[in-house]
């Protein structure tokens, strides 16, 4: 009986591993096929990120100028948009309207590649009206509590995804060892070990332990030194 259970467990693990490998191969194949269809201009465009306010109507801040959005996505093949529309913290409804407009324009392009939207969420989904705010990273570091930090990131991910945004620019992994560093509050401080532990907690919270496709999770992006 014991051997049967062990064999069943081994079979389950091997099946799951095979499925994951098969899925990755399928995705890699789709990506290669898509890349083979893209022009050089489309590839350059996909690597370009533009702030959302560039597409706004001058006479109506916070709302798109349809011709600007069309030009950016269809003519220049912009692959990524970031930041927050005016005046600063839209409601979830306004975010959904914004993201729908971008998605609809992307679906009119030749290859229909979705536009990747990213936003800062270093202490909660602070660019969505009514979202939960948390201490800045320097305050989180002072707790020495990775479970607490992870839970905060899970809430931030849920509220960011509710705004239809799939990607956050967090955690901040700068090491501000000069007191004059103007963004010290945005970091976990100067200790590399503490920063690494807090970073893992934040990423796990945002991504749901590597499940960024979930409606409750978002992709995270470490900053700024990597760039």
Protein architecture, described:
By secondary structure, the chain is an alpha/beta fold. It has 7 helices and 7 strands, in the order ααβββαβαβααβαβ. The strands form 2 sheets. A 5-stranded parallel sheet has the order 1-4-5-6-7. Helix 6 packs parallel to helix 7. The relative contact order is 0.10. About 4% of the residues have low confidence.
Sequence-ordered SSE layout with sheet pairings:
Elements: H1 2-37, H2 40-46, E1 49-51, E2 56-57, E3 60-64, H3 66-75, E4 80-82, H4 92-106, E5 116-120, H5 137-141, H6 146-162, E6 167-169, H7 192-207, E7 219-220
Parallel strand pairs: 1-4, 4-5, 5-6, 6-7
Antiparallel strand pairs: 2-3
Helix pairs in contact: 6-7
Largest sheet: 5 strands, parallel
Number of helices: 7
Work out the radius of gyration. Answer: 21 Å
The strands making up the biggest β-sheet line up spatially as 1-4-5-6-7
Indicate the proportion of strand residues: 5-15%
SSE topology string? HHEEEHEHEHHEHE
Low-confidence stretches: 6-13
Global shape: globular
Derived structural class: alpha/beta
Measured as a percent range, the helix fraction is 40-55%
Distance between the termini: 54 Å
On the 0 to 100 scale, the average pLDDT is: 90
User: What's the β-strand tally?
Assistant: 7
